[in-house]
Design brief:
binds ligand NPW, binds potassium ion, eleven-stranded mixed β-sheet, binds adenosine-5'-diphosphate, 20 helices, seven-stranded parallel β-sheet
Length: 523
């Protein structure tokens, strides 16, 4: 399967091989790649700071090619009349070949005095804390062992200064593949990464240390990229644009499907309401919620466009086993269904959900209490006629795989998600910072959108509704899971831009779905 508009995520070894092939086979000199890399950093810096003339910018350069990129940045900033200080961790004779070339070019342009050897942090602390920006060009994909000695001191100095910090390719000290901190690592506000995004930027401590990630094209031939064997992709806006169905002039509400949401119980009607509204906002033609009978009126009062069907309930006002046949009919007459938000873990409701999952023959999303009903019973998924989409947060994921914890899930999010999706022939959306989507074919995608403001009640219900809304429109499971997750995160980002992260609540995400779709060009 090809995923054209998604971007490949690579390991250090894969990126090094791509750089090498570009240099050796395509005949592009390494220094030209470095020049483009450095120019990309300067462009990003300009977007952050505005005109760079007169700005105090301090650049720390290591002895490898990452340092070489730093020398390019210094020369270009000097040309723009920024006040530039360069500190180098190695004498010129120890620099890598390309870094040495860029070093010589820098001193030819700006004079020798622009570069000083790094001796200790105390020497440069004042300069660092006065800087408008600090550029971290100490270590990139070549980092092999824990950082110690002067490199460690330089990293501490950058972090202590607490100025705008831009990491070149990777935050120094972050392992390019695992995202682990090797000894210590730079805490960047922005990471400008070259060619293709590195896996470590989206995993473990790499997420917080990288800050915002920008990708700069340095001219790696697309054919070489296509030949890379990587099963991990980054979801992009152009991908999402191809997924959200267009609205033809002749279309009517039936064209966009009928989403069914099996959700809610006493005290948890909001979950059902938000999932339903989110499904409509992402374009489903019709949405109906199946809800325990005694809370039906409450739901009707909350929802105008959504239909509701009261279903048999337990004395605890949750869906009862007596609802089974009616729910089977409900599912049969919907294009796609979601099961789970706010259902409760009442034993009878759990048994009902298990019975429904066994007979599920529609594109579906299983979330929240449906996942709790599957804890330790994931084998039931094998009975679904169409692989369902499961949307656990790390706690729910830990219960699904059993003998696990949210912490161990988070230590290997991609591995946990892909193993589960392959073993149980389902799609899995493992939520949290940098949500991972995995498919039964072993593919994984990482979502770059979203922010910690979304760590608030009900945002997961909104995502469930959005995925179901796309499924109802006939979008295939993988595409629906990836695109809805991206739009959900972008809606959260747009909401945070206007109201901030602290006050953000789930309904703000629903309200910003239209702006997210317009932003992507899908509305
Ligand atoms: N032409 C290209 O390929 C392009 C590459 N590009 C750029 O190059 C970067 C990769 O460059 P790279 O391979 O030179 O490695 P880099 O990250 O600079 O560091 C390696 C140096 O650090 C040292 N070192 C290692 N561990 C250490 C430690 N714990 N503590 C201290 N030192 C340690 C190690 O020394 P050694 O141990 O080998 O003596 C070695 O000298 C990449 O991220 C991108 O920015 C772009 O310009 C595009 C074109
Ligand atoms: N730090 C974060 N960065 C990005 N997205 C986040 C972050 N924290 C939470 N989210 C998103 O918010 C949603 C939370 O879902 P969930 O935990 O199921 O909440 P609820 O059960 O209350 O609906 C998920 O989509 C998750 O990816
Ligand atoms: K770096």
């Amino acid at each position: 399967m090809k995923y054209p508009a998604m971007r490949l995520i690579v390991t250090a070894a894969q990126m090094q091989a791509l750089d090498r092939r570009t240099i050796e086979e395509a005949g592009v000199p390494g220094t030209m790649l470095m020049e483009r890399a450095g120019a990309g950093v300067v462009t990003s810096l300009e977007q952050q700071l505005g005109p760079l003339r007169g700005k105090l910018i301090t650049i720390l350069c290591g002895k490898g090619n990452n340092g070489g990129d730093g020398f390019v940045v210094a020369r270009l900033l000097h040309k723009q009349r920024a006040k530039v200080h360069v500190f180098t961790l190695a004498p010129a004779a120890d620099l890598s070949r390309d870094a040495a070339r860029m070093y010589r070019q820098l001193i030819r342009t700006a004079g020798k005095a622009i570069v000083k050897p790094f001796s200790s942090t105390s020497q440069l602390q004042t300069i660092l804390s006065d800087s408008d920006a600090i550029i971290d060009a100490l270590l990139g994909t070549g980092l092999a062992t824990p950082v110690t000695g002067r490199y460690a001191e330089a990293i501490d100095g950058i972090n202590q200064a607490q100025r705008l910090t831009v990491a070149v390719d990777l935050p120094s000290g972050i392992h390019a593949d695992t995202g682990a901190v090797l000894g210590r690592a730079v805490k960047a506000d922005l990471t400008v990464t070259f060619g293709l995004p590195k896996l470590g930027l989206f995993q473990n401590q790499g997420i917080d240390h990288a800050g915002r990630v920008e990708i700069v094209d340095i001219g790696i031939p697309p054919a070489y990229v296509d030949a890379v064997e990587s099963r991990i992709r980054l979801i992009t806006a152009p991908f999402v644009r191809t997924v959200v169905p267009p609205r033809r002039l002749s279309s009517h509400k039936g064209t966009f499907g009928h989403a069914g949401i099996i959700a809610g119980s006493v005290g948890k009607t909001g979950a059902a309401a938000m999932a339903a509204q989110a499904a409509l906002r992402i374009g489903a033609g019709l949405v109906t919620v199946a809800i325990p009978a005694s809370v039906n009126d409450v739901l009707e009062a909350k929802l105008l466009e959504v239909m509701t069907i009261p279903m048999p309930e337990t004395t605890a006002r949750t869906l009862s086993r007596a609802a089974l046949d009616r729910l089977k009919d409900f599912i049969n007459t919907r294009t796609a269904v979601a099961i789970g938000p706010g259902l409760s873990t009442h034993p009878e409701t759990v048994a009902l959900v298990q019975a429904l999952v066994r007979q599920l023959d529609r594109p579906s999303v299983l979330d929240a209490d449906a996942l709790n009903a599957l804890a330790g019973r994931a084998a039931l998924l094998a009975e679904c006629a169409i692989p369902p989409i499961l949307t656990p947060h790390p706690g729910e994921m830990a219960r699904l795989v059993t003998k696990s914890s949210a912490q161990s899930v988070n230590e290997d999010r991609i591995g946990t998600a892909t193993r589960f999706a392959q073993a149980h022939r389902c799609y899995l959306v493992l939520k949290g910072a940098r949500t991972v989507i995995a498919g039964p074919d072993g593919m994984a995608a990482i979502c770059p959108t979203g922010n910690p403001g979304m760590a608030t009640a009900g945002t997961g219900d909104v995502l469930t509704g959005m995925i179901t809304g796309l499924l109802a429109q006939g979008v295939a499971s993988w595409e629906a899971a990836c695109a809805a997750t991206y739009v959900h995160g972008l809606a959260g980002d747009l909401a945070a831009e206007t109201i901030g992260q602290t006050s953000l609540i789930a309904r703000d995400i629903i309200d910003h779905i239209p702006y997210a779709l317009t932003n992507i060009g899908s509305a």
